[in-house]
Design brief:
The protein is mostly beta strands. It is 6% helix and 38% strand.
Length: 363
């Protein structure tokens, strides 16, 4: 088909049965028939009531519009780095010049795909990242991301799989991990007050916002403020923001870092540090503190004494005292839990739930 100048458009309508539309750089095809295009500026491909596939095998030299019908229609990207922009519901674009409406499934390829839903209220459908390191950016809403499978889950009306990296948008995002599930990439909360929630984890977790690392997240952690730990023994370390760290169950170590922090002990014996330590980014040192604190052959006071400087503990010379813990000059709130907690705090901090049986180390 030769447009021979002017603004030429091809409209191709599918049959009532399932259709496969194939787009290449200079051609379109459907039902085994290929149309080669010369000097054609735009193409509209119209699906029908069955399940249609819009297969983009190469970025076309012409503007393309896919119009899905009543079936479950999917748009499949070419084998290159792709950028998807979802503007509303089931509508959006791929790599700038391929637009689609009524799409139910978006399919990436073996390269990297970036699915951006922050231009609207999210995508109402399924996102399949495919191979490669793929990223899903959320809508500008208060969003709850449920990671229910490895590299997969649900946010709003968008289900996703084979997505390694999650990015929040302008408002508050909460990333909730089902027990044992993880991401091989990173989590960036974006703007807003964002949270990691491991309450369903039956094992302990280590989340270090200062170091930008967390259990179940293989890549970097950024723009996260609040953390809820798992059911067992956790290490939660804040950053320079105003963090809220919740220990949940187990014997936990909560270190607020700088900023006006809230530390919530939870169910077990907890160490609540209203400041920063020399070990905030030293995982080996933090693990040695947890090894002593979580041991079951010693009582509360013996464990406190070992960690405060008495020899004989499993903490291998790593102590929490005035030499290793710094006052952050902020009014932190430390809330004890149901068991025996050790409060490491400055005079300006607020202690809630501290009993006469519990130790206080002033920094």
């Amino acid at each position: 088909m030769d447009g021979s100048g002017g603004a030429d458009q091809l409209d191709l309508h599918g049959r009532a049965t399932a259709n496969t539309f194939v787009v290449n750089q200079t051609s379109v095809a459907s039902q085994g028939k290929i149309v080669n295009l010369i000097d054609v500026e735009s193409v509209t491909l119209v699906g029908k009531d069955a399940n249609d596939l819009f297969d983009v095998q190469a970025t076309p030299a012409f503007n393309t519009l896919f119009q899905g019908g009543l079936g479950s229609d999917r748009v499949q990207a070419p084998n290159q780095a792709n950028t998807w922009s979802i503007t509303a519901g089931k509508n959006g674009s791929l790599n700038g010049n391929v637009a689609f409406t009524g799409a139910d499934v978006l399919v990436g390829n073996a390269n990297t795909d970036a699915f951006n839903t922050d231009l609207g209220n999210g995508f109402n459908g399924r996102v399949l990242g495919g191979a490669g390191s793929d990223t899903l950016k959320g809508a500008n809403l208060n969003s709850i991301w449920n990671i229910t499978a490895n590299n997969g889950g649900l946010v709003g009306l968008t289900s996703f799989s084979d997505i390694e990296n999650l990015v929040g948008a302008a408002l508050n995002d909460t990333f909730v991990f089902t027990n044992g599930k993880s991401l091989t990439g990173g989590v960036d909360g974006g703007a807003g007050v964002n949270k990691l929630n491991y309450a369903a984890y039956t094992t302990g977790v280590i989340v270090n916002l200062k170091a930008g690392s967390a259990t179940g997240i293989g890549g970097a952690v950024a723009n996260i403020v609040n953390v809820v730990g798992g059911m067992r023994n956790d290490i939660l370390v804040g950053n320079d923001s105003a963090n809220t760290l919740s220990g949940a169950g187990g014997r936990d170590i909560l270190i607020g870092g700088l900023g006006i922090d809230k530390l919530l002990g939870g169910g077990g014996d907890n160490i609540l540090v209203g400041g920063k330590t020399d070990f905030d980014t030293n995982l080996a040192a933090l693990n040695s503190i947890l090894a002593e604190w979580s041991r079951t052959d010693l009582g509360y006071l013996d464990r406190v004494n070992h960690l405060a400087g008495t020899a004989g503990g499993l903490n291998a010379g790593v102590f929490l005292d005035i030499n290793t813990v710094d006052n952050d000059n902020a009014s932190d709130t430390l809330t004890g839990g149901l068991a025996l907690d050790w409060f490491v705090a400055s005079l300006g901090d607020v202690l809630i739930g501290k009993t006469a049986m519990e130790q206080l180390t002033t920094i």
